[in-house]
């Protein structure tokens, strides 16, 4: 039997595997970070000048040197940290197309990599809270409403107070640089979830942009995880992930929009809702760009005042007004896809666009969500939301409500992707055991299992519960895929019980496993005539169903004395 005291999720019906950790399991400890120390005025001014003159290599080298000096010292010794404006600029340059996919300049690419190295270093040495990431990485969150006479978008009166506050933030340590103002990631994006949705759209449609977004998103999620772990027990509402949840747009549909961003997969609906963040983000480097790089290598003579084209303006870069004074009225704004009709077909010059109008995203495997890296990042975000729902059920969603929404988005996934989401192999890298078993039970009880399966108020996963309520039953439909998904969920739950040493060999277990395998195969054999394409899909689903049944039987074999 699987005994343990109640937990924050214990109120969820049929939802939670509660297993005591092994006695020799290490106790999770909080990371030790150095206290932060602001840069002296003169040094900060010096670095700001570097940024304003676009001398990013020198600025990042100096900042990395200052932060790394304390990396091996006593952890109680304070270390210098970049200002909020400098951190936000580094975050922007990490992914901005002008410093990555829209240029052939090795120097610009190197600067983007240096920016990311600095961010990782600050995260590791000082930590998200001490470094002030909550202030540095706050999205400006301006909302605009169109008016007939404005000729564009204007700020609503009800939001002018917030606009003034955010303008003040820009003035705090202001850097006169387009990538620190109008072209900043935190000015261009509506909120964090806009960035998440667009990044995951890129994982499906624009591989070159995804190569850059995946680096930023992996770092950002790590920051969110570390920050939550440090604040969970003492200041959960001061965490960065809570601020991104609390400040998310979408009104009453806020939480559902967050899940849509996590599951964005390049469909027309997803691209319409989560559009590109930066201006001309999908443009490829111009042919003249490579020639310009060569010209810089041979035509620069500072003493003779010959600068090649370093002082020439890139036609893709915004004007000074756009980058500074008027960006408030020109930034990207995503809206609910139901409010407009916009084609998501990429332009001919887009970076490796895999999208074609009318394309059906029907392929199976992790590729349906952009590949393995994309899937892992999505699951880590789901885990974060799950953690927040446990800690702040009154302010966010209860676990019951959140996992019901999880089911809505995960239930329709193709079999191979579905299996990757619920596989025990995902634990503990992306999903905790409790979160995964809760998800599997919700999938079974809220969507997949036939009505004949009895309900139970038992909140914990036990062998008796598996035998009575889950193992003998088929899916609610005759779909081969649905019956395979039922089998995969049961397999995951049974494996977790087995690995926890909470499964014993007895006739009831053997009988219900074999009965369930037979019932699901019979339910899927409906004899209905189907098209050739449907038959091919069913053949694949049958393979999943039969192989899962074999693995369930294999678990029985491992229990034999």
UniProtKB/TrEMBL annotation:
Residues 344-353 have a biased composition (Polar residues). Residues 1-18 have a biased composition (Low complexity). Residues 1-32, 338-367 are annotated as: Disordered. It comes from the Eukaryota. This is Uncharacterized protein.
